[in-house]
Amino acid sequence: MINVLVRLELAERQRKTLLQARLLRIDGHLEAANGVQHVIAGRLVDLTDWLLGLDVRSRDFH
Asked: Would the pTM count as exceeding 0.90?
């Protein structure tokens, strides 16, 4: 598991992408200490368009 840290300045600057993207790429750098890993976000990229051709069907396992 990796935590993503989005600083306030970045969140304000890329608010629309942060709140509306269904698939999000996070560019940044990795910090690891004491078994905990964090990605410090530097840029957010909306990749929602990648989901457009995806055929997702619900499966009933009953």
From this structure: no
Helix (H, G, I), strand (E, B) or coil at 48: helix
- Alpha helices by DSSP H, listed for the chain, are 8-13, 15-20
Instruction: Evaluate whether 28 touches 39 at the Cβ level (below 8 Å).
Output: yes
Query: Residue 3 pairs with which residues in a beta bridge?
Result: 38
Q: Does some domain include residue 52?
A: no
Rounded to an integer, the average pLDDT of 1-19 is 96
Asked, for residue 43, whether it belongs to a domain, the answer is yes
Give the domain range for residue 26: 3-47
- Residue 62 located in a structural domain: no
